[in-house]
Amino acid sequence: MEAFIDKFGYIAIVVGTFLEGEAILLVGGLFAVMGYLNPIGVIIAAFFGALAGDLTSYFLGRLKPRRFLRAIGIVRRHEAQARKFFQKYGPVSMVLGRFFYGMRIAGGFVCGLVGMPMRRFLFWATIGCMAWAIVVGTLGYVLGEGVQLLLGDVRQYQWYLLLGMIGIGVVGWVFFVRSGRRKNRHISPS
Which of 13, 50, 62, 77 could bond to 190 as cystine, CB 3.0-4.6 Å? Predict the structure, then answer.
């Protein structure tokens, strides 16, 4: 496993934080405690993955695809409310919103949807992604140290821990997608 993580660990963090985030970053922190990865490298990889994810969702929002809007629970009649909110609280919501699961995923998309200027978006997304990567990456490292104190040599449990963290990420993603679909059933498009 060590050779695999050494070769693909940072790439997995970039891809994982592009797609999901917390679970893979916590696993990265644990692997840093185990000596497989450098904690600073984990944070840097998470930053670039999160920023790439934000930029992708921003540009998807600029395209305003109707099906994707329904998938994340946004309908046309809420667009004006979202525009007003992001014009007033955009920077704060982009930085603090990274720490809330659904907001982090949809934030870039909504910023693109409501027409936030690219420079402004990029500036605040960079600050938010960096803050998030530092906080969650450090949390993963601290939790990894705690797990190591409780269990001793964590390497004997590494596969179980990895599968558990991936499972938590998958459950979180499924919960987010299903909650968006439930909201859409109760809201009729105007």
Answer: 77
